[in-house]
Amino acid sequence: MKIKALLGVAGVHDRENSRALRVGKIFEYLVAFALLLVFVQLILALSDYPIDSPWLNAVLWSVFFCELVVNLSLVDKKRRYLAENWLNLLIVMLAVPWVNWQGDWALIFRSLRLVLLLRFITSFFQDAMLLLGRNRFGQILIGFVFLIIGAGSIFSYIEDRPFIDGIWYAIVTITTVGYGDVVPFTEEGRIFGTVLIIFGVLFFSLVTANFSAFLIGSDQRKLEKDILNYVRQTEKRLIKQSMDIEKHVESIMLHSTQEVDRLQKELQRYQLLEEHLQRLQQEKNSEEALFMHKQSQELSAGDKKRESDKKPEDAVSSAKQDDL
């Protein structure tokens, strides 16, 4: 991926969201088909039957333009996408079909689109290096080359043929193709050819078996890569949900704290009001007790006065009774 990024043909990064990866994979097939048409167009431009259709140029340019715009709108990190696909951006800007480039410049700018083949060539090279590193496949290929050269040399010596004919005979014999254009005529050559066929079948089966194992492993690696991307996307989604939940909990806690503070203030206000009411009740009770005390004192004083006024009257009435 780093080599592709330096060349400006990286495409959608592996750690982007699943939707961007899915759409990016679709555009890879469209771009590959468009590059095939560009290659055919350039080859025919050098022949006597060029294809210089403005509509075809517009369609090809639209494929590259749509890939750039759509992928840029879907990826999360847009600056990284532009930095890793700067060549695609350059091609879109320079190969505009409505700009009438004259002479060799038109061919150069159209040929510039073929540089995007580096995206697929780099992937093929990485897969080839991975294939050579698995199950000693590189050593098997080196042995295969040595076998072809050695067998071709022996055949050219036995049959007294040119060395290139011996190499060709070794290749078609080991691969069990057998075109029949180069065949041994001597007894020694036929015996050597029989041994080479048996040895070639055994040796070539190792090559095909390793290649088949690589293809199966490639599907498995792709599945593992998809699973890893899904796990990463799920992890991002869970982290985002966790952050949202934390924010929601913090909001609830803040609201609860504010509500508790408000209730505490209300409670304090009610307590102060209750204390004030109690003081008023105490003052009222004190005033009532004082009023009752004054009333009782006034009643006592009135009773005493009436008793004192009544005593002289009783004395006068007693005296009158005595006179009688």
From TrEMBL:
Provide this UniProt record's keywords sorted from A to Z.
Answer: Ion channel, Ion transport, Membrane, Transmembrane, Transmembrane helix, Transport
| Chain spans, region Disordered | 291-324
Q: Which SUPFAM superfamilies does the UniProt record give?
A: Voltage-gated potassium channels (SSF81324)
Which species is this record about? Thiomicrorhabdus xiamenensis
Q: What is this protein called?
A: Ion transporter
Q: What positions does the domain Potassium channel occupy?
A: 144-215
* Highest taxon of source: Bacteria
Question: What terms describe the molecular function in GO for this protein?
Answer: voltage-gated potassium channel activity
Regions of compositional bias (Basic and acidic residues) in chain numbering = 301-324
Coiled-coil-forming residues are none
Q: Which GO terms describe its cellular component?
A: voltage-gated potassium channel complex
Q: Name one Pfam family in it.
A: Ion_trans_2
Enumerate the subcellular locations listed in this protein's record, separating them with semicolons. Membrane
Q: InterPro entries, per this entry?
A: K_chnl_dom (IPR013099), VG_K_chnl (IPR028325), Volt_channel_dom_sf (IPR027359)
Query: What biological process terms from GO does the record include?
Result: action potential
Q: How does it sit in the membrane?
A: Multi-pass membrane protein
Q: List the transmembrane segments.
A: 26-46, 58-75, 82-99, 137-158, 191-216
